Amino acid sequence: MGIAKLKLFFTPMCPKCPFIKEYLETKSSIEKEFVDAATKEGLQQAREYGVGSVPAILFFDETGALISQAHSLEEVKRVLENKTLV
């Protein structure tokens, strides 16, 4: 199974988030959801997944199971390009 979907948790004040979001937008084969953790709804989702800081990128397989996560652009690239699950 591969990566089918990802969620990027970000906040407007996060200095690293725009670079990660820009990179992720180039990955057209993966369904993406960008979640603003500064909103009430986004904070609720972050709590559900145990996200305590941003950026946080969660990777899911075709069944919706969480298979990996990353917190930096370097980790994201490692997961996506090398298919490394961290």
Explain this structure to me?
This protein is α+β, with helices and mostly antiparallel strands and 86 residues long. The protein has a single domain (5-82), classed as Glutaredoxin, CATH 3.40.30. It is 34% helix and 26% strand. It has three helices and four strands, in the order βαβαββα. It has helices at 17-25, 40-49, 73-82, and strands at residues 5-10, 31-36, 56-60, 66-70. A four-stranded mixed beta sheet has the order 2-1-3-4, with helices on both faces. A hairpin with a 5-residue loop joins strand 3 (56-60) and strand 4. It is globular and about 30 Å long. The two termini are 15 Å apart. The model has no long low-confidence stretch (mean pLDDT 92).
Q: Could you provide a short overview of the structure?
A:
This protein has 86 residues and is of the alpha+beta class.
What topology emerges from the helices and strands here?
Layout: E1 5-10, H1 17-25, E2 31-36, H2 40-49, E3 56-60, E4 66-70, H3 73-82
Parallel strand pairs: 1-2
Antiparallel strand pairs: 1-3, 3-4
What are the key terms here?
86 residues, alpha+beta, Glutaredoxin, four-stranded mixed beta sheet, globular
Query: Segments where pLDDT lies below 50 for 5+ residues?
Result: none
Provide the number of structural domains.
1
Sketch the topology as an H/E string, one letter per element.
EHEHEEH
Distance N to C terminus: 15 Å
- CATH class annotation: Alpha Beta
Radius of gyration: 12 Å
Strand order of the largest sheet: 2-1-3-4
Number of strands: 4
Give the second-level CATH assignment, the architecture: 3-Layer(aba) Sandwich
Number of helical regions: 3
CATH superfamily: Glutaredoxin
Structural class: alpha+beta
* Rounded average pLDDT: 92
Return the CATH topology: Glutaredoxin
Shape: globular
